[in-house]
Inverse folding.
């Protein structure tokens, strides 16, 4: 399987993540992508390509122009306001307040985000742009005939809504790929989110549509991020009713239980008969992940990859989460190797 990777991911190198009342070293750190890349090379998974430049048009097919413009200038605005640290949102429109865009940078950060753990600093914009280009280049490979391609995206994307960032995500790479398939004439696309966390952004972006089926397996939002979306009664709305599927699991869920949800997802995908599949691949489902609570083991990712291959669909993988950096390379590349070994 071919891999797309951009060294520009390392421009995303914030030094803070608000967690437990402290500013900690971010979980979503550059070594995550470097470790996966090293494993791709060590395993000779296939050719590694740098991304082509697709510009902002494909990004704006999913994200609003004002949100994109905000991300581009946010760090400069923050500096211009004389702020001493990294840009961290700290105020939001709570219940009874107005979702109106203020002029002040603190207000704008709150308007365009849903969580406070995702600091912004110099280089975040460039890395997010490169990550979208990585995903779009992987999509292009598949559109040109590859059975599958691995978009080694960093920063991740599945928590990003049309005009909201959070959960370490800015541009929703999986949604951008799904929309690119649609814009290239693929009539129906399925997005399967196997990250430990609910793909809230991807769900929201396609929630009223029946041309893109969105499915996510994840930790119970009653207990974990993103907390306010991802419940099983969220099945889509309007034309999209029945085209969103959430499967929620408790702490300590092993692959033997999780994979029943995977089977359910695969059956739903087969019924939908899509022309392409996007897999939002997080491996924070791993038993040792520091911020998650499932109990998958490394060999399960080989099994996962093989199962996805049996769907027989043109498939783009977008890298999402996974925070046990020692294990992320083996676990992510295991999915690709399991896929490749399955006809
Ligand atoms: N104490 C950890 C809180 C983490 N909050 C954000 C999680 C984002 C996961 C992205 S896959
Ligand atoms: Mg998920
Ligand atoms: Zn996650």
């Amino acid at each position: 399987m071919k891999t797309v990777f951009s060294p520009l991911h390392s421009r995303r190198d914030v030094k803070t993540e608000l967690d437990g009342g402290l500013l900690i070293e971010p979980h979503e750190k550059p070594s995550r992508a470097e470790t996966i890349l090293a494993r791709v090379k060590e395993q000779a998974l296939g050719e590694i390509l740098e991304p082509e430049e697709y510009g902002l048009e494909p990004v704006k097919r999913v994200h609003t122009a004002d949100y994109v413009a905000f991300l581009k200038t946010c760090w400069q605005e923050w500096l211009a306001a004389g702020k001493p640290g990294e840009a961290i949102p700290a105020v939001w429109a709570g219940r009874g307040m107005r979702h109106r865009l203020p002029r002040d940078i603190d207000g704008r950060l709150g308007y365009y985000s849903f969580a406070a753990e995702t600091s912004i600093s110099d280089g975040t914009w460039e890395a997010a742009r490169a990550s979208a280009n990585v995903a779009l280049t992987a999509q292009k490979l598949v559109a040109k005939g590859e059975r599958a391609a691995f978009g080694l995206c960093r920063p991740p994307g599945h928590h990003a809504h049309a005009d909201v960032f959070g959960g370490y995500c800015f541009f929703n790479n999986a949604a951008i790929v799904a929309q690119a398939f649609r814009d290239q004439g693929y009539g129906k696309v399925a997005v399967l989110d196997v990250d430990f966390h609910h793909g809230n952004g991807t769900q929201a972006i396609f929630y009223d549509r029946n041309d893109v089926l969105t499915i996510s397996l994840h930790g119970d939002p009653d207990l974990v991020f993103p907390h306010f979306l991802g419940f099983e009664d969220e099945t889509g709305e309007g034309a999209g009713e029945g085209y969103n599927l959430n499967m929620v699991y408790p702490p300590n869920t092993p692959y033997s239980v999780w994979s029943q949800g995977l089977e359910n997802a695969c059956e739903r995908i087969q019924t939908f008969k899509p022309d392409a599949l996007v897999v939002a691949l997080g491996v924070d489902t791993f038993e040792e992940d520091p911020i998650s609570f499932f109990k998958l083991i490394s060999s399960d990712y080989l099994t996962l990859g093989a199962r996805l291959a049996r769907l027989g669909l043109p498939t783009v993988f977008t890298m999402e989460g996974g925070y046990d950096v020692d294990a992320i390379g083996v676990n992510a590349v295991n999915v690709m190797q399991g896929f490749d070994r399955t006809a």
